[in-house]
Design a protein that fits this description.
2 copies of one chain form a homodimer. Chain A has 13 helices and 7 strands. With 300 residues, the first copy, chain A, is an alpha/beta fold. Chain A has 2 domains: 5-256, 3-Layer(aba) Sandwich (Rossmann fold), CATH 3.40.50.300; 267-299, no CATH class. A 7-stranded parallel beta sheet of chain A has the order 3-2-4-1-5-6-7, sandwiched between helices. The first copy, chain A, is globular, with a radius of gyration of 21 Å. At the A-B interface, helix 2, helix 6, helix 7, helix 8 and helix 11 of A face helix 2, helix 6, helix 7, helix 8 and helix 11 of B.
Chain lengths: 300, 300
C-alpha cells in the first residue's frame, strides 16, 4: 500500500465499514506504528480549523513531506455530516499524490471512534506519511481521546465571548501543546492571547501561544515553527516517550474496541429480547439481566 | 429513597463518581424499571432546549405530576461545563420537592455515558417520577444513544440556515417522535416547519411537528398535547412495546459498561507500559499487543 493513495482510501473504507479483511489488513500494518508524527488539531466549531490545517498541509508540501489529514466529523442524525467540505478540500490537493485527506464520521462509532481513528492513522502511516493531522471538533469525547493518541495537540480558538470563558475552564491546559488564536484580526484577539499566555506560564511543560490568521496567512510562519519544534522533539531524544504514550493510548483504545466487539458477538437480539421481557414482567431485575448479559460476553 | 430529593441527589453523585456502594444501591432499584415515562429532548446547541424543558416541567407541575430532568452536558476540556446553568435552573424549582433537576457532564464518560444516564434514570424512577426529561445536545453520540433508552424523543430545532440543512440529512427521521420548531417568531420558522411536515408525511409512524416559542409561551399547549399523546401511548396498549425497547437499550448500555469496566480492572498500567515498549522496539506488532491486552480482559 505504501505510496498508493487510492489503495489507502479503499483500506480506510474497509475499516470504517467494519468489512471482512479489515483486521487482516491491519495486522500486516503493525510494523510502521509510531513512524509518522501525529498532531491533533482541536477546538470549538467555527474557529477555522480546516482552513488552518489546509495551510499547514500546503506548507509541509513545500518542504517535500508526505502529509495525511484525518478529519473527525461530529456528524449525528441532528447535526448531519460534512462530506461536502471533505470533497471541496480534496479538490485543493487532488493532483498531489503526496497528500491524503479523509473525513470520518463520528456517528455510529460510539465507544469505538478512537479505534477507527487509530486504525486510519496506522494506515496513513503505512502509506508513508511523514505527518498526520487529526482534526476533531472540541465537543464531546473525540477531542479528549485524540490527546491520548496523538504525539501533540494544537488547540484552535478565536476571539469571541464564548471561547474566552471556555479557555478558563479546567482541563484545557492538559491537552494543548500549542494554543492557536485564529482570526487574529478580530477584536479581542489580543485579550484571548494574553489570557492563554498567563495560563501557559504556570504550566510545567513548554506550551506555545500563537496568533494567526489562516485566511491572510499572518502568523503562519510562527505556527509552523511551533509545529516544527514538536516534530523535532518527536524525532529527537524525547521522541521515544512521545511514541510510548501514543502507542499505549492506541493499544488501549483498540483493545477496548475489541472487547466491545466480542460483547456484540456474544449477545444476540433474541437473548436481549428474552431478558427484556423478563425485566418488564418483573421476573428478574434490570441489574440481574445486565449481569447475565455481561457474563455471557466475558465467558465467550 | 422514594420521595426524598436530597437522597436522590446523593445517589446520583455516587454513581457519577463510580464510588463504592453505587452498584449495590442500583441493584436494589430494579423493581421500578419502566415505570416513569422517559422523553429524550435533543437538538443542536442554542435552540433553546433548556427553556423548553423548564416550561414543560412547569406545565406538568400544574398537573400535579412528579418530574425529573437529567441534562447531559457535552462538557470537554475545550467547551467546559455548564454547571452554572444547572444551578440557575434548580433555583426555579428549589422549593418544589416534586421536581428534580440534575446535569451530568459527558466528559470522562467515554463509552459509558449511556450507562451513567441509565443509572440516573433508574434512580429518578425509584424516587417516584411520573416523567423524566433527558436533555442532550445533538452533537456526538448522546443524542443517538438517548433514542435507544428513552420512550420517546423530541427534536428541537430553530429557524437558521444551518438547521435547515441539518434537517435534510439522513438519520434525523429515525430519532424524533416530535419535531419542535422553537423561536417560531423568527424568520424562516414557517419554512423549516413545512420542510419537517414534508418529511414526517413520508414516514410510517405518526410523528408530530410543533411550532413554539418557549419564551412567549406560544404553541406550548400544542407541544404539551403532543407529549401527552406519547405519554398516553406509554400508559396504554402500546406501552409494553415502548418499555421493552427502552429496557433492551438500557440493558445493553449497562452491560457494555460492565464489560469495559472489567477490561479496566484486568489491565494495569504496568502491563500497558510493557507492551508499549515491546511495540516501540518492534519486538511485537501493535496488533499483537492489542490481542494480548484484550485476551487478558476477556479471560479475567
Amino acid at each position: 500500500m505504501k505510496g498508493d493513495r487510492r489503495a489507502l482510501a479503499r483500506a480506510i473504507t474497509l475499516v470504517e465499514n467494519r468489512e471482512n479483511g479489515a483486521r487482516e489488513l491491519l495486522a500486516r500494518l503493525g510494523e510502521r506504528a509510531g513512524t509518522s508524527f501525529v498532531l491533533g488539531i482541536t477546538g470549538p466549531p467555527g474557529t477555522g480549523k480546516s482552513t488552518l490545517v489546509d495551510k499547514l498541509v500546503a506548507s509541509y508540501r513545500k518542504k517535500g513531506l508526505r502529509v495525511g489529514v484525518i478529519a473527525i466529523d461530529p456528524s449525528s442524525p441532528i447535526t448531519g455530516g460534512a462530506l461536502l467540505g471533505d470533497r471541496i478540500r480534496m479538490a485543493d490537493f487532488a493532483t498531489d499524490d503526496m497528500v491524503f485527506i479523509r473525513s470520518m464520521a463520528s456517528r455510529g462509532w460510539s465507544g469505538g471512534l478512537s479505534a477507527a481513528v487509530t486504525d486510519a492513522i496506522r494506515m496513513v502511516e503505512a502509506w508513508g506519511a511523514d505527518l498526520v493531522f487529526v482534526e476533531t471538533v472540541g465537543i464531546g469525547q473525540a477531542d479528549v481521546e485524540i490527546a491520548r493518541i496523538a504525539h501533540g495537540v494544537a488547540v484552535v480558538l478565536m476571539p469571541s465571548s464564548g471561547d474566552d470563558v471556555q479557555v478558563s475552564k479546567a482541563g484545557l491546559m492538559e491537552v494543548g501543546d500549542i494554543y492557536v488564536v485564529n482570526k487574529s484580526d478580530l477584536d479581542g484577539a489580543g485579550q484571548i492571547a494574553l489570557h492563554l499566555l498567563a495560563m501557559v506560564r504556570n504550566s510545567k511543560e513548554r506550551r506555545q501561544v500563537v496568533r494567526v490568521s489562516a485566511v491572510t496567512g499572518e502568523g503562519m510562519d510562527q505556527l509552523m515553527k511551533a509545529v516544527e519544534a514538536l516534530r523535532a522533539k518527536f524525532n529527537g531524544r524525547d521522541g521515544r516517550e512521545m511514541r510510548l504514550k501514543s502507542i499505549s493510548g492506541m493499544m488501549v483504545e483498540l483493545a477496548k474496541h475489541r472487547v466491545l466487539a466480542s460483547f456484540e458477538d456474544a449477545v444476540d437480539s433474541e437473548l436481549i429480547g428474552r431478558l427484556a421481557e423478563q425485566v418488564t414482567d418483573r421476573k428478574i431485575t434490570l441489574a440481574q439481566a445486565v449481569g447475565k448479559l455481561s457474563a455471557r460476553a466475558l465467558s465467550g
